[in-house]
Amino acid sequence: MSQTAAIPNHVALIMDGNGRWAASRGHERTWGHAAGAESVRACIKGALVAGVRWLTFYAFSTENWKRPAEEVEGLMELLCDSIVKETPELVEQGVRVVVIGARGALSEKVRRLLEEMEEQTKGGEKLTAVLAINYSGRAEITRAASALAAEAMGGELSPVMITAETFAAQLYTAGMPDPDLVIRTGGEKRLSNFLLWQAAYAELYFTDVMWPDFNEDQFREALDDYGRRERRFGKIR
Ligand code: FPP
User: Fold this and answer.
1) Cα separation, 201 vs 1, whole angstroms
2) What domains appear along the chain, each with residue ranges and CATH number?
3) Ligand 1 atom 2: the closest Cα is on which residue?
């Protein structure tokens, strides 16, 4: 009897390599980001085909504000254009979009478009695509600690009641499953402040492929690699 390889329930993606991909072709970095948007589409398609239920994309980190203003503006513009262009198809595909990160620092226009996309796609039941925008894992954890400390100071919470579960309920990802697989493209092997709490037991997959070249086949290859891993969660077997 053949056994179906395990499909991860939640795949998180660190989309690295856009700038290098563009530069190696004699273009501006923003051109690489635009090409990278196609890879987001490809992963959504690959996830729908494979039956992956959750995808999280690291679209903009808190540290990304330190890039040249022109690049930051280009990324925000790309985000706005992608939302307008992709939302109808996402609705058709049954994809729900949820945004995590510190929205307060985003422009009024970006915040409005993100909210509209969340509202318009909220009925999607096949896949949830989480966009991490102005996201930082450490900031997320600090924010949760601060919220719990405020509750404790207010007498609503006893410090002994703080558990991994009550802590996780204060994160942006409250109610979402932890990622089973974290994929990073672009050749670097680090987490770069992404889902630090949530990725505690995730399998890590690093590839030298630059994000704009990461297509549906590459996504499937990562899933197949995951299917061959043995996950023990601290146990012997
Ligand atoms: C990292 O590559 C990539 C980013 C900071 C942005 C990722 C954003 C997209 C792919 C845009 C599309 C996303 C959505 C959700 C529409 P890098 O610029 O650090 O590449 P480098 O390491 O080669 O410089």
Assistant:
1) 30
2) 10-136+178-227 (3.40.1180.10)
3) 16
